[in-house]
Structure formats: structure tokens, C-alpha cells
Amino acid sequence: MASITIRNLNDEVKTRLTVRAARNHRSMEEEARLILREAVGRKPSSRNLAEITRIYFGPDKGVDLELPPREPGRESPALC
Q1: With 90 as the cut, is the pLDDT of residue 41 above it?
Q2: What is the C-alpha to C-alpha distance for residues 27 and 57, in angstroms, rounded to an integer?
Q3: CA 63 to CA 56: how far, in whole Å?
Q4: What CA–CA distance (Å, rounded) separates 38 from 29?
Q5: Stretch 37-48: mean pLDDT
Q6: How many CB atoms lie within 10 A of CB 31?
């Protein structure tokens, strides 16, 4: 197994890690290993923002907005 050393770890982060480990009945090292395993093991989402928005706010979620009719664009300003 490989080893890793983390230098310049903020004291508050170390304290929070220690508390989290104690709450989960694990050593601080085991808690850090678990956090790293979970973070590295996640696969990035292939969903884009539009898909995620539809999941939470789509018509089947009770949100059905009426789109206003399109109007012709305004004229460009004269540049003289």
C-alpha cells in the first residue's frame, strides 16, 4: 500500500476531521482514507444544466411556464 503525507493542513480542517472520525468510530487516518476513496471513486455526471433543470423543474414537477410570443427585434442604432 502507498502512503501519503499532507503538509500545511489547516488546524480547523484537522480538528473537523478528528471530530468526524470520532463520530463515525474510526481513526482519523481511516476517515481520511474513506473520504479520499469516495472523492476519487465518483464518476463525473454526464448531465448538462438543461437536463438537471428539467429534473427539478420540469412539467411533471408542477412547473409549466407559458412562453411569451416572440416579437420582431428592434432596429439597430444608427452609427454616424
Answers
A1: no
A2: 42
A3: 9
A4: 14
A5: 82
A6: 19
